[in-house]
Amino acid sequence: MTETKPIIIKKYANRRLYDTATSKYIVLTDLVSLIEEGVDFRVEDAKTGEDLTRSVLNQIIFEKESQSGEFFFPLDFQKQLIRFYNDTYAGMVPDYLSKSMSFFTEQRSAMTEDMAEVLASNTRAFMDFSRQMAAQNVEMMRKTWSLFVPESTQAPKSEAEGEETDLEALQSQIDALQSQLEKMRDSNT
User: In what order do the strands lie in the sheet with 24-26?
Assistant: First the structure.
């Protein structure tokens, strides 16, 4: 697998950013989009070539933290991070944070897949349950109608009629019941 070189973003003295891959000026939100898309880039000072990537990313984080009102980095975490700058274990912190974020990302992906699977299986289970309930309701309706419609008023079934669907059978029972109700109304008037 060939490794691609990062896109070079030039930063000018006037704070403008220039994407050398697209030959266009961009803004910080464009850099956020590149990050979200997993595009590798490097921000360089246009005059000196100095790597400014870290300071630009810190600027993005600062702006995100300042805008939202909901802070991503808890206050205690920020204080602990500052304490580690002069700690003997300071060299371990970047590796630990990187591995922790990688682990979190893997777990998030696994949870997303698990949730999709649960939703899919629950949808299937719901559909199966719905079909089962519909079949039970049709059978219950058939039994209920047979209580109200005496067998003598039901027409004898031929082989062709025996093949009619459940809905057609139900419709014929409803028709027979309506006919009986009309006769009862007529006799009461």
Answer: 24-26, 17-19, 7-11, 41-45
The pTM of the whole model exceeds 0.70:
no
For residue 25, the number of C-alpha atoms closer than 13 Å in the C-beta half-sphere is: 5
Q: What is the identity of the amino acid at 159?
A: E
Tokens read off for 82: 């500052």
What is the three-class DSSP state of 26? strand
* Distance in angstroms (rounded) separating the CA atoms of residues 46 and 13: 8
Asked if 39 contacts 3 with a C-beta cutoff of 8 angstroms, the reply is no
85 in Cβ contact with 79 (< 8 Å): no
Looking up tokens 């698990």, which residue turns up?
114
Specify which residues 45 forms β-bridges with.
11
In whole angstroms, give the CA distance from residue 83 to residue 81: 5
The H-assigned helical ranges of the chain are 28-36, 53-68, 75-84, 93-148, 159-162, 166-188
- Find how far residue 20's CA is from the centre of its chain: 35
What are residue 11's DSSP bridge partners? 17, 45
Q: Flag whether pLDDT at 78 surpasses 60.
A: yes
Q: Report the alpha-carbon distance of residue 47 to residue 116 in Å, rounded.
A: 49
pLDDT in tens, 141-180: 777 666 666 555 555 555 545 545 666 777 777 777 777 7
**Pairing between strand 24-26 and 17-19?**
antiparallel
DSSP label of 22: T
